[in-house]
Specification:
This protein has 137 residues and is an all-alpha fold. The chain is 69% helix and 0% strand.
């Protein structure tokens, strides 16, 4: 296995990950039913996002905290919760996908970045005083 080296590697990672998400009983409903993700538009944004994160290439413009706040509110309006467990699960699934496909410095960076983003979003979305003990990865 090789490290994440090219834009095509990012596409492979993102596509593989979201193919799992769409089918996943824990995450799929949030993406498919609540957010009703427009995949042809979403995936290129995720390629750009991860290209910015992994290769420090400027280009991604967006605010994940706002998007996830809207998702949380939409889920709550439909009687569902977006919980810390969802973020833990997302992190685990993302990191497992990286491990399936890549090994190396950038792969490790992608896994660390996913963990940090997941934790950052939970801090933004929820009162930190009500957190469960956060797992270290």
């Amino acid at each position: 296995m090789a490290d994440i080296e090219t834009y095509d590697d990012i596409v492979k990672l993102v596509d593989t990950f979201y193919q799992k998400v769409v089918k996943d009983p824990t995450l799929g409903p949030a993406f498919n039913d609540v957010a009703q993700v427009d995949w042809p538009n979403h995936l290129p944004r995720m390629y750009q996002f991860w290209e910015t994160v992994i290769f420090s290439k400027p280009g991604y413009k967006g605010n994940p905290a706002v998007i996830h706040s809207q998702l949380r509110d939409k889920m709550e309006a439909q009687g569902h919760q977006l919980t810390l467990a969802h973020f833990d699960y997302w992190i685990d699934l993302f990191q497992a996908t990286v491990d399936e496909l890549f090994v190396g410095k950038r792969a490790d960076q992608a896994k660390r970045s996913a963990y940090q983003m997941g934790r950052g979003l939970t801090v933004h979305l929820y009162d930190a005083n009500n957190f469960f003990v956060l797992r270290q990865k």
